[in-house]
């Protein structure tokens, strides 16, 4: 057999390190080369087919919406061009294509020819990129390029093409061989503690409700292990260098197809420590001036303004080294130009080489006007709810805060740490003392109308109010996000245990009290009523609701550790609705469900003493006690212990200190829809790193 390295069609720049000849997953075709033919192992039907199809539907809806917000699809996508990278970031191309090798890690997808060195020689566009993705024997693809080269946008378009190819497979067996592409960011993964499969399965269970509930994590793991999911991993360049190398090493044996997105510089630095075996590195090419002109012309009216005609014509026929043409080699600059200048805007001012002597000057000008343009009223569009000044002031504050933290991720549950906690504590102290303390003081005076109670009662209420404020203060430092839904709290096992505990204790107390002589015995239903909170607390303590009851008297015994020892696959029933989970969904969960459960905890505590006081004293006394219990416990467990409430209070404080909107979460979602932010799981990020850096600067340069 001839040495493949001597083939003149070889594309240089990649050196192979690592295995390519092993079979991974039930749906990865093992191609065994014989003298005259190949034998393919056809996977049997799998019960995971319906789950994979539903995941494909959810992923498609998610990224179609995201691509629409980014304006990647209409009126037509910006042409994407790529070539095999000559940087030292991956192995030799022959290692990725497995030409001449006995085995390949992955067989080509149905309807996709094998990727070969000859097909890769001249590079290509999006259709050819999908052919490489689907036909690459190693299943390892690196997309690299300089900052703002459109790497993530390319990955999104490739993902949509992969979904379209999967949907085009009419035969179930063929569709089962096409993995569902899932785009994830690499933040939060520590390869020292979790394998790539473990981490990805956990992310899937947190970000897609399809995998919530009983067996969700197990189904996600099966899809990954069988190669039914391919991962598009973004943000390799945003983690530390040491961690990047560990991630690449951990991805070496992942049993699924991979598309890894990174800046070229960071990819080269990572490759010096660890290389992804069998990977093929493709570099996104700069946008050609003619392509930029065509893309911009497609969004203009049939008779564009003279300014736009001048710019597009100059891009087609002018000097390609002109600062504007050079700046528009970046998809970021093209997107900003499209957003900043309306159809009748003075876009031709960018041709002035005196005002804009360099591509950096053009890009900085566009970045400086991006926020104002997004919030400037335009005919035919809804009027923005926020003024350009408010929007820019808010986004600058956020960008500076993220720069101070050294992060790109805006975790809304960390916002309480952006302001001083003292004003919030004082406000909560006063409100809780007045609102919650008044009924409690009246109750104490009703039970024991003495001078001591008159003095000590208000003092006790002031101290209790301070305790609520201290509970709120604990949320002023970065917190882990507790995002369990009601299906994770009220599971079949915990509800059954709570019912057994309630009925057994209620019955036992009834018989125990009935043996006491000279006691006014309440009926059996009364004991079941007053012991009902024990069943509720049993449910909460044993599941993910333990943090809610942790500060409730008599309800928090044993809280905090039981759930951690339970396996996720044993806890919750499957869900019917399936969707991707974004920051707003997590916010609504906390502001709604967890707040409701906190108030419900107060109701449970009220049942401890309210009926007893009503039976032995007066109904009014029992009612006042119940009201006090609901207020105090609800304030402690539902309000002061709620991350969403703490964030809302911090937003009010930021409004007075920095001039940001009171409804900060609403503003963040609005900024996402205006293409300034993007959602990555439960966190927000600036759409463009350069925009975040520009906004974080003390003054424009």
Can you walk through the features of this model?
By secondary structure, the protein is an alpha/beta fold. Among the domains are: 49-284, 3-Layer(aba) Sandwich (Rossmann fold), CATH 3.40.50; 289-374, no CATH class. The protein is 51% helix and 6% strand. The chain contains 28 helices and 10 strands. The chain has a 6-stranded mixed β-sheet, sandwiched between helices. Helix 15 (359-374) packs across helix 16 (388-405) and helix 15 (359-374) packs across helix 28. The longest helix is centred in the last third of the chain and has 34 residues, at 583-616. The radius of gyration is 31 Å and the shape is globular. It starts with 31 loop residues before the first strand and ends in a 5-residue tail after the last helix. Mean pLDDT is 79; it is low at 1-40 and 557-578.
Condensed summary:
With 701 residues, the chain is an alpha/beta fold.
Structural class by helix and strand composition: alpha/beta
Distance between the termini: 61 Å
CATH class of the domain at 49-284: Alpha Beta
How is the biggest beta sheet arranged?
A: 6 strands, mixed
Strand % is 5-15%
Poorly predicted spans: 1-40, 557-578
For the record, the CATH architecture of the domain at 49-284 stands as 3-Layer(aba) Sandwich
Work out the radius of gyration. Answer: 31 Å
Number of strands: 10
Oligomerization category of the chains in this entry: single chain
Shape: globular
CATH topology of the domain at 49-284: Rossmann fold
